[in-house]
Input
Amino acid sequence: MARISYDEQTAAAFKAVREVPRDGLSEWREAVRRHLRPSQGMTLVDIGAGTGQFAAAFSDWFDLSVLAVEPSAAMRDQIPRTPAIQVLEGTASALPLPDESADAVWLSLVLHHIPDLGVAAHEIRRVLRPSAPILIRQGFPGRLDRVELVRWFPETARAVETYPSVEDTCKAFAAAGFHQDALEQVPETYPDQPRGLPRPGGHVPPRRHHDAQSQ
Output
């Protein structure tokens, strides 16, 4: 499922450097609340959960039960173990879950790791209850104009151009019976910027945007 192999050192570095501080995700909290309409007792599947940043956030924010599905053993070891989070080995195309067992699916920066979006979309359809939503956080080709990372690391833009587009994603999920409800850009804020990296706009905390897509 992953484009890169995560060993223990890489997974630890990912958690230390790549996770967005919780207070920088406040606008994601509100975006997810709008599209998910969470309620106590819901079960959300976090596919490609990585180090568990969003699994932990969702359980804290919304009092959800989260099934954190992640193919990398090293990344799974970084996911917090709490009564609300169950950690499972699996991929988007082979979910270790019964039919119609989940109330929502979350995919965060995962689409470009999936070899066949069509197969994954049908597998996700299998585990979701009728009318349950998919929420996607993703950088899409052609939609990077407000992503700060691209300004300082142009090679990131070249990599994202190889990712599935919004149109590709909608087509794959439509074939599995989903339809697009919304697409919006959601900002993330980093209060502490790495030393030596230019900070645009004086003392304004650096922000980056990823698209939120609801299916």
